[in-house]
Amino acid sequence: MTDAFTSPLILQELPEPVAARRNIRLLLLRDDLTHSDLPGNKWRKLKYNLREARHLGHNTLLTFGGAYSNHLAAVAAAGPLHGFRTVGVVRGEPTLPLNPTLAGAQAHGMQLHYLDRATYRRKTAPEVLAELLREVGPAYVIPEGGSNALALPGCAELVTELTQQTYFDYLCVACGTGGTLAGLLTGLAGTRQAIGVAALKNADFLRTDIEALTRAGTGATYTNWKLHTNYHLGGYAAYSAELMEFIRQFQARHGVLLDPLYTGKLLYAILDLLEKNYFAPDSTVVAVHTGGLQGWQGFGQRFESRSAWWPVVY
């Protein structure tokens, strides 16, 4: 199994007037470009989980996600790349035809297994896991979103790579399950500031989850971070005309496509925080583009009729 990325870390300067007025250098870390088959934070979160699965003698990965999950798509792609059979436990009832995300996962060889929503909420209960493993056979279980203690060191490596290229004061990332931010915190080790932007409504619980992850991974918790929960723009996977227009304008200015679930909200939040003088003058702010562009497939399928503009991604 190779761990090599196919291209070095790329930093792109974003010449935004709101940043220039306070002499703030705004950089976009293009982690969406660092691995050709598993772009963004998904590879970083999977890297050491795949090593552990191999070490424990497993040839099957079992994981969880919604019908449009970037994580399911990533695990499905990782399977044939690294010699694993994959099983995706999907929230909700099966529908045909499969949406683009699940169709792509199946094309990569992933076996799809569905749980009704009530059972899915109990997916980590021992009896539910035991029944799943009885049905599919022995497997290495990766949690929803890939966020566990083994996800942290892969994300922490981003900090090492970044500090080799530039000095920075703030490192900003979108949050779904909190695993990427937790990994960045372990990499920062209490230095500089980390900013998380929650992609979900009512995401205050993530603060507890992030602290639990860092404690599990390193035995430590950190105070050099903030989580902003008021930039969900309607909630996870919800349509927002305001966000669509922001993504369109951002792409026109910088030639970079953001996704509507995570990175679009992240950059929207950062520019709003710049307007509010949140960041110190003369500082360097780095935003992490964590990929997730496959999400446009399912998002467009559901909401295309509401917008005149949709990017051609695949």
From TrEMBL:
The keyword Transport does not apply. Coiled coil: none annotated. Keywords: Pyridoxal phosphate. InterPro entries: ACCD_DCysDesulf, TrpB-like_PALP. It comes from the Bacteria. Residues 19-291 form the Tryptophan synthase beta chain-like PALP domain. This is Pyridoxal-phosphate dependent enzyme. It comes from Hymenobacter profundi.
